[in-house]
Structures are given as structure tokens and as C-alpha cells.
């Protein structure tokens, strides 16, 4: 029974349930960042393996604990486990910081996916008066998104959320005509009429 455990999106954002599972683990797999977030909770006798090739996740032993940064079900590794332990996601943190209701949100993923399609989906949802939480990757171009949305006749707000949960967390509000400038490769966007 493979367990996938959410580490939370930043330091100190792990749940008690996740800590308990990690403390009982005999073998843990995860990215360097995920391992770093929970290192203090990993028992000494536990074997730790950093994942370098995510195409081989299905080959992990059944008794493994697989770490997923943030929440495993928010574009995470949740599909690989028979038991999922949720974590505090970047979306939860962003919406809490901005004091926005999650019930008004739509998730659009650009992380490791086609950026043009993500831009199109984000614009479509904004026209429906939804608040878009866009999960980006380091190559995502916020200025290109702004240009696309202007081309669609939209004049929405764009909030850049960088390094959520970390000491250097940065949240900057802009608009499609004056988008915020990215300073980190770890960011997400909140888009809509905020």
C-alpha cells in the first residue's frame, strides 16, 4: 500500500497526520525540496531516496512513502498512491493571504504543460467571473499571458505569489496592462476581478 504524503508548500505547513506517517516510514522517496521540508520528521533508520526520474514512480516499492510538495491532489503525485495524506497547498496559502474564498476558484495548470492552452483556459474562466489559480513553472511568461488577455478584451487583476510559505514569500498585485515582475522560479498566479 503506497502512501503519498503532502509536505505542505513551505516550511511548517505540514499536517500532524503527515508527520505521523513520515515518522513510521521505513523508506521515503521525494524531490530534494520535499525531503528538505520534512527532514526533521524522518526517523534515523529510514532509507531516503531522492527522485530524479519521475517516469519510474510506478516502480517504487509498495511500502514506500512518496512525498509530494504542497498537496498531492493539486497537480501532485496523488494518482500514484493507494493512501493519500493531504497537505497545505500553495492555492490554500495564496487564497488565505489574499482573503479570497476558495469556492470562487478554478485551477489552471501550466506546470509541465502547454502554456498557450493554460493562457486560453485562464482567459475563458475570467470571462465567467471566476478567480483563476494558475500553477506555473519557471518558464511561464506572465507578460505573454497579459498580452493574450488584453487581446481577449480582458482587464483583470494578476497577483503573483512567489515562494509561498518560505521566509522570502512575495505577493505582488498587478493588472494585465501592468503585470507583476517575476523574481523566482517558484510561483503561481491568481487572476480575476479581485
Please describe the structure with a list of short key phrases separated by commas or semicolons.
194 residues, alpha/beta, Cobalt-precorrin-4 Transmethylase, domain 1, Methyltransferase, Cobalt-precorrin-4 Transmethylase, Domain 2, 2 domains, five-stranded parallel beta sheet, five-stranded mixed beta sheet, 5 helices, 10 strands, 24% helix, elongated
CATH-level-2 architecture of the largest domain: 2-Layer Sandwich
Rg over alpha carbons:
18 Å
- The overall average pLDDT, rounded, is 93
CATH superfamily of the largest domain: Tetrapyrrole methylase, C-terminal domain
Q: How does the major sheet shape up? A: 5 strands, parallel
Note the overall shape. elongated
Strand order of the largest sheet: 3-2-4-1-5
CATH class of the largest domain: Alpha Beta
Proportion in helices? 10-25%
Distance linking N and C termini: 43 Å
Low-confidence stretches: none
- Judged by helices, strands and strand pairing, the structural class is alpha/beta
Number of strands: 10
The number of distinct helices, counting runs of at least 4 residues, comes to: 5
Short description:
The protein is α/β, with parallel strands linked by helices. Helix content is 24%, strand content 24%. The chain is built from five helices and ten strands.
